[in-house]
């Protein structure tokens, strides 16, 4: 077998994030193993573009990274995009508990995490240690998860202000795999609003819909961050476990 790199460190990095050409006929054992894995990520390269294949115990994501290549390649199709919550949607009562906590913290900002246990399929809310909280600034510590526990949602509030992702949020989310949510307008008579995005592979992707089940008085807006691929790429996929993106969707 041809070595991809003669430097041991580079070889280890390439092995950790493999790149597989899609065969024009038949199947790729490497891609099949990656797509069915508990955790891992790599790339599929097809005649119709490149795709990030990312797996976590709670998430299965196939996200296009490029439009179709102009050059002719003797490869097959990279496949349909998907964004599947392997853990299922978070029970709505957890969102209600978080919103109550955020309102109690007014006028200051507040934070919460939704954790999922892959062994028991249990969700729980974790309220982190807060180092600083004001109406415009929040410093908090992410949880140190015990084995089998995973961060699914990282949530914080903007108090009475609008829901949006700041430059600080962008920096914090750049190297994480999670659903990031910001809740704002907590004291508005029409109810709060929530901005959401899926952070994966250094990209910010619009979520197809709220990760929470049931109805609650909270409107979900499309992500304010620039997303690539466009939200419609994943949201329009028939294989997605979430519904299509809508603006002001009841979450």
UniProtKB/TrEMBL annotation:
InterPro entries, alphabetized: DUF2016 (IPR018560), JAB_dom_prok (IPR028090), PRTRC_protein-A (IPR022499)
Residues in JAB domain copies: 93-188
Keywords: Hydrolase, Metal-binding, Metalloprotease, Protease, Zinc
Metal-binding keyword on record: yes
Ranges annotated as spanning the membrane: none
Domain (DUF2016): residue spans on this chain: 7-86
Keyword DNA-binding applies: no
Domain of life: Bacteria
Protein name: PRTRC system protein A
NCBIfam families: PRTRC_A (TIGR03735)
Organism expressing this protein natively: Sphingobium cyanobacteriorum
